[in-house]
Amino acid sequence: MNNKKIESKIKLTPKTAYLVGVIIGDGHIVNSSKSKTDHSTDYQIRIDISDKEYLVYLSKVIKSLIYTKSQPQSPKIYGNRMERLYFQVRNKRLFKFLSEEMEIPKGAKSSIVFVPNKIKNSSKEIKSCFLAGYFDTDGGFRGNSLGFTTASQILHKGTIELLNEFGIKHLKERWTNKRYNKEFYGIRIYKGEIDKFLKLLPLQNTEKLERINKRFKCEDAGVAKRDRFSQEMSKLRSLL
Given the DSSP bridges, would you call strands 139-142 and 170-177 parallel, antiparallel or unpaired? Predict the structure, then answer.
């Protein structure tokens, strides 16, 4: 296997824009050294997802960008907590692409993460793929509709700007979690805009799409675009 060919420079494409949305939604970029004795940078990237099929899909996306033997793993379960699988890799170029070019904060990021400037200044295709990755991981049902919830005011603002650009009407929300005394920000898509929203995004999380289509009778909104996106990714993988 020619690893050098696989390990080519990582660029912003529809595929990597989707991955950026995934990392912002449910990913973590480590901000530490390898060990107490080895102070070199730990280039660890981790994704935590409860749906195994979707995590396997994401692992294939990452493996189409870099060479890694990593596989999705199951952590130990304590008490009655829901099992959340994880996929963990260490790769310098992917780490730098995400943390430097895409400006995703290392370490705890929930309150400070934002829509990367390179995403904002890219094509509508890049923006829709980013939103798809973000929604597939951190979006979901909001009341009687769909939307997003975040602790980051700047991510909330950036997501609103993208939705406005696509003409998706929505409701902005804000509240204080009294238990933690922390501000949260929500976006709720107007119910009449659900089909438009789903058709815009090349969603890949089939389990989530099935739940959405079942609840809103969307007639498989988003599936055609999801399949097209998957075909495009297959073509990209064949070129690596």
Answer: unpaired
Q: Are 145 and 169 in contact (CB under 8 A)?
A: no
Kindly tell me the sign of the dihedral angle through the C-alpha atoms of 108, 112, 118, 119.
positive
Domain count, the chain: 1
Q: How does pLDDT run across 76-85, given as a tens digit for each residue?
A: 665 566 667 8
- Per the CB < 8 A criterion, the answer to whether 46 and 106 are in contact is no
Range(s) of the domain holding residue 141: 3-239
pTM here is 0.86
% of the chain at pLDDT higher than 70: 83
Which CATH number is 228's domain given?
3.10.28.10
Count, residues in the chain: 240
Angle made by CA atoms 196, 202, 206, in degrees to the nearest 5: 100
